[in-house]
TrEMBL record:
PANTHER family: CYTOCHROME B-C1 COMPLEX SUBUNIT RIESKE, MITOCHONDRIAL. Residues 73-160 form the Rieske domain. This is Ubiquinol-cytochrome c reductase iron-sulfur subunit. It comes from Bacillus songklensis. It comes from the Bacteria.
Length: 169
């Protein structure tokens, strides 16, 4: 009687076997698809940290606009995105690299864009003003200063990274 309890019928054997083999095959097919779908999302965002922008000897005391491209990898999409920076040497000889993106609504600021306000960054969209060091002029639309690029100088070349909000902003 107890021997009969443990016996597996032909039908049960086939069910177990087919379920096992079917499950194994399904896992074999699904795993690459799941991995393909998730891998780019789980991978840390790749991209260039620092990009060569200009030679240090070419940086003047007057802000100049430099355009460069940054490789951006976003999940399955990879592209060279354009960036710009206003770069100059301050009175101490330090390199300052400012984002041209206005902190009001994101237009592009220009150095000396308003002849009535010389030596300022000017945003033509709503009259935003920033001092040379990128601080917003009170009473104009932007309430924060321009972002500052992470920078590094190596072998006479200026490299720029991400533009970060200034402290306290
Ligand atoms: S977007 Fe620059 S002042 Fe409004």
């Amino acid at each position: 009687m107890s021997e009969k309890k443990h016996r597996v019928s032909r039908r049960q054997f086939l069910n177990y076997t087919l379920t096992g083999v079917g499950g194994f095959m399904a896992a074999g097919m699904l795993m690459p698809m799941v991995r393909f779908a998730l891998d780019p999302v789980l991978r840390p965002t790749a991209g260039q940290d620092l990009v060569a922008v200009t030679q240090v000897k070419d940086i003047t005391n007057e802000p100049q606009r430099f355009d460069f491209k940054v490789k951006v990898v976003d999940a399955w999409h990879e592209a060279d995105e354009p960036r710009s920076a206003w770069v100059y040497k301050n009175d101490k000889g330090e390199i300052v690299a400012l984002s041209p993106v206005c902190k009001h609504l994101g237009c592009t600021v220009n150095w000396n864009g308003d002849k009535k306000k010389p030596n300022h960054f000017y945003c033509p969209c709503h009259g935003g003003l920033y001092t040379k060091d990128g601080k917003n002029v009170p009473g104009t639309p932007p309430v924060k200063g321009l972002d500052i690029y992470v920078q590094k100088v190596k072998d006479g070349t200026l490299y720029l990274g991400k533009a970060k909000p200034r402290e306290g902003a």
